[in-house]
Amino acid sequence: MTTKPHAVLVPFPAQGHLSPFLQLAKLLHSRGFHITYVNNEFNHNRLLQSKGEDFVNGLPDFKFVSFPDGLPPSDEDATQSLDGLSSAARKTMLGPFRELVAKLNASPDSPPVSCIIPDGFMCFGLKAAEELGILGVPFWTASACGFKSYFHYVELIEKGLEQEVLDAIKAINPNVYCIGPLNLLEARVPAHDTSRDLTVSLWKEDPRCFEWLDKQKPGSVVYVNYGSIAKMSEGQFREFAWGLATCGHPFIWVVRTDVMRANAAVLTEDYYKEIEDRALIVTWCQQEQVLAHEGVGLFFTHAGWNSTLETVIAGKPVICWPFIAEQSTNSRYLCKVWDVGVEASHHVTRGEIVELIKEMLESERGKERHNKALEWKEKAVAAAQVGGSSYKDFDRLIAEVFRH
């Protein structure tokens, strides 16, 4: 009997990395792979809280496991320190991860590990693969332009379209497979595949969003979410809160529990009275489904790559407020190259927020950007269809790397 290939996936411990890794895992599972999805212990415990024990137990051939990261224990419902995680990835994670792979290889419940797929920021996974004589294939979860920027860190890309960036990367290293948007490829996972309905979220998702959206006029709602990491000063948070409250449009605002606790002085009873009946504040939601809802007309985002892809797939225009990493590059593409949005200034005020929302939802220029967003949606869908560039690259990845 042929042994299933066994892929061990190791995402960076942040929500924006966990989601695309799960999408890739499901795609590989649909192609006959046994999957082991590896979290650090902190996030494994958070998944227990948000998704329950049945989810974490996984499926017979799709397992969720954990290993210690060497960081101090914490009960906070928030992403760990990026500095601490980056340091641990360099200094303390290799040994425990190597031991985990050895246990997987010795287990009678799974085939031997045939490949390790670490996040681009979890390079110890490649070191472990090299030491154990196993195929190592890093997965970069952000944009091609972001990858290019990191690849040549001091040479920032200022000109060119995404395709030119991809061509430049492949000229340097031909073994780059551009398989996004994974959201659309994932939709092709067969209905009978047992992993199809798996989702991963470190926060409990609020189900009220869709009932509330169903009551709103099409294209009227501003959806606001700054991702799993971004933090604001109380002054910034106050400007956002009152800018949204006075913009004249209904809005859904995702405010993580850690951000909500830090800004209790802003989200007062008086504030909730001000926005009553025309706004919904939640701690987390199913973003892809919210963006796809006809009630949403505008996305106010930090321009993380997952959010960038999800808004393109939904065909929705944006206001960008980039925070870290390559988010400014993503914002530049969204606003300057693809022309589907505008960027807020770093020290944005409530008045600017009101002006930008009105420009995007009430002006002719806003309508033009909305039409552009629909054009980019069509291009994304075409890339993921049979014969499209992403579909073909995923087939090449399976044939040339994992089946080689």
From TrEMBL:
Annotated catalysed reactions: an anthocyanidin + UDP-alpha-D-glucose + H(+) = an anthocyanidin 3-O-beta-D-glucoside + UDP
Record-linked SUPFAM superfamilies: UDP-Glycosyltransferase/glycogen phosphorylase (SSF53756)
GO molecular function: anthocyanidin 3-O-glucosyltransferase activity; quercetin 3-O-glucosyltransferase activity; quercetin 7-O-glucosyltransferase activity
Domain Glycosyltransferase N-terminal: start-end pairs: 8-49
Gene3D superfamilies the UniProt entry points to: Glycogen Phosphorylase B
A Pfam family it matches: Glyco_transf_N
CDD domains on file: GT1_Gtf-like (cd03784)
Pathway: Pigment biosynthesis; anthocyanin biosynthesis
Keywords from the named record: Glycosyltransferase, Transferase
Keyword check for Cell membrane: no
Documented EC number(s): 2.4.1.-
Family label: Belongs to the UDP-glycosyltransferase family.
UniProt-recorded name of the protein: Glycosyltransferase
Lineage, uppermost ranks: Eukaryota, Viridiplantae, Streptophyta, Embryophyta, Tracheophyta
